[in-house]
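ENTRY TYPE: paired fold submission
RECORD: A
CONTENT: sequence, then C-alpha cells
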Amino acid sequence: MEDAVMGHHPEEIHREFMVNDLKRWKEEIEIINVEMIFFRNLINSHLKELATWNANDYRNLLNGISDVKKSNKIVQKQFLSFSNNLEGMRECDNLECETYFLNDHARFKADIEDHFSHYKAFKKRMFSFLRTKYNY
C-alpha cells in the first residue's frame, strides 16, 4: 500500500532494479574488454624493453588474459540474450509471468556476479605481479 501511495507499484520497482543491473553489467563487460587490451599492450611493451621476464610468467599472464577474454565474450553473449528475453516482461499481465522473469534475473545475476568476481581476482593477481616486477 505504501508503494502505491508513493506512486510506485512493486513490479515497477523490480523492473527499475533490473534495468539498473543491466546498465551496470553492460558497462562492466565493456570495461573488462578494454582492460584486457590494456593489460596485453602493457605486458608486450615491457617485454620489448626488459629481458628480465620469465617465459612462464609471460605465458601465464597472456594465457590468463586470453581466458578472461573468452569468458567475457561468452558472458557478453549471454547478457545480450538475457537482455533481449527480458523485454518479454513488458508483456506480463500476471504475477506468475513476472515471477518467471524475476527468477530468471536472479539466476543470471548470480552467474554474472560470479564472472565479475573471478575477473576481479585475476585483475588483483595481475596488479600484484606488475607491482612486484615494476614497483608500481
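RECORD: B
CONTENT: sequence, then C-alpha cells
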Amino acid sequence: MAYAEDDYFGISRFFSLILCLLFGPILGIVQRIKDGHIFCALFRLLTGWNVIWVLDFICLLFTGRIFKLF
C-alpha cells in the first residue's frame, strides 16, 4: 500500500488550500487512488463528492490534513 500523505501530493498547506478550493473534487479522488485507497476513491466518486470536498477544505484549514475515511 502506498504511503498516505497528509495533504494534496505532499505540497505545502497553503498551496493545498488553494488547490482544494479550485480543483478539490478531482484532486481528492486522485489523491485517494495515489494513496492506494481505491474504495475511498469510488465512494467519493459515487456519493457526495461535494460534501467530502467541503470536509477536505475544513480539515485542511484547521488541522493541516485532508479528511480521510481510513
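NOTES ON RECORD B: The mean pLDDT is 80. The CA atoms of residues 1 and 68 lie 15 Å apart.
STATUS: closed
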